[in-house]
Amino acid sequence: MPTQLTSHYRHAGHLIKERRFIHLADRLLKECGVSDHALSVLLVHDAEIAQINRQYRNKNQPTNVLSFPFGDGADASLASLPIKELGDIIISVDTAHREAILYRQPFKDRMSWLLIHGLLHLLGYDHERSASEEKKMLAREQELLSKINNYRRTTMTRLAINVDHIATIRQARAINEPDPVAAAAICELAGASGIVVHLREDRRHIQDRDVILLCQTIKTKLNLEMGANKDIVAIALDIKPDLITLVPEKREELTTEGGLDIISQTKKIAKVIEKMAKASIPVSLFLDPDLKQLAVAKEIGATFVELHTGRYCDSVNEAMCEHEYDLLAAAAEEGDRLGLRMCAGHGLNYHNTGPIAALDTIEELSIGHAIIARSVFTGLDKAVRDMLAIVRQADMLF
Fold it and tell me: What is the pLDDT of residues 371-390, one digit of tens each?
């Protein structure tokens, strides 16, 4: 059951990214073995928490966090209802901000500790009960803090580079340079975890020879994007890339527009996945953040899903951006729950990548145009390293 977050704090959006805070709470519920329970979190000002503290604890002052287990003081008949509810955590953002300054720690770290502290109270821990209980609760707090702080250290989002645009420049003059194979080597040396190319039916950029040479030379992994065309499928089965990603493909489009609709062509896509499975080639599906599409992807045997981030990247205002981000975050979480390995890409650049890289269940980002465009001015090696720095710092965002 997801965490329900409510904010009475006027400027909470400037300090806290609500979706990421919800993800943190959900991860803590999982770590504590109560992910099947609902949790309510309320963010308030000092004045409101002081009023609650006065009403329920006879203390006429604000505090940092209060916890109210489900059913406390309620009618006994509630206990018989089939509800898995932990209770409510109320956090004063004002007090959290002051304490962050006092203890010289990042605001997000202080909020994380308050959330953990409140959650442990709901789970029956009580530092006021005795010295031994205080020690026990402190140890559990430190254990949970360590797990969430080190989470990204072991599951760092990877960066795969699409080198199609190197081939686009080459094909514009119909000569031999610049060489996408050489570009792939530079990207790997700069720290990329994989190389992505799209072998289109019209061969507008990447050519068959490029894919063959990349299969022979790259040291990380090759992700071959392709339509479910039988001729391209045959090529993939012959050269055996490390991974294929099925994408929609239209001859008139400048680049891939939107995710693959696997609901309308389930049998066709399932047959391609079956053929690839026999050749031990995992399949990723390029999908919009649609939960119905994700369910079908799982049913027909996909290993990966790459979420289409185009609408998020093309957002024209903050509200639209937040809406599209929430859809991506929810889809990434649901895909992970289904057992799919989640990736993301399309339109990501040096300004909008951080929040997507910070999503806990996203394993890898596929980025091409923005990096190749920057490389015109900085060189390819530096362009890749600059993007890697953004991805690696994403876990510092709330």
Answer: 999 999 999 999 999 999 99
**Beta-bridge partner residues of 226:** 246
- Give first-to-last CA distance, the chain, whole Å: 21
Instruction: Choose among 377, 391, 364, 311: nearest CA to 195.
Output: 364
Q: How far apart are CA 361 and CA 338, in angstroms?
A: 12
Band (pLDDT 50/70/90 cuts) for residue 395 is low
Collapse the DSSP code of 329 into the 3-class scheme (helix H, G, I; strand E, B; otherwise coil) and give the result: helix
How many residues comprise the chain? 398
Domains of the chain (ranges, CATH numbers) = 3-149 (3.40.390.30), 154-396 (3.20.20.70)
Instruction: Decide if 267 contacts 248 (C-beta within 8 A).
Output: no
The residues annotated with a catalytic role in the active site are 198, 225, 346
Strands (E), the chain: 3-7, 38-44, 65-69, 85-92, 158-162, 194-198, 222-226, 243-246, 283-287, 304-308, 341-345, 362-367
Q: Tell me the C-alpha to C-alpha distance, in Å, between residue 224 and each of 108, 284, 305, 342, 360.
A: 39, 10, 14, 17, 25
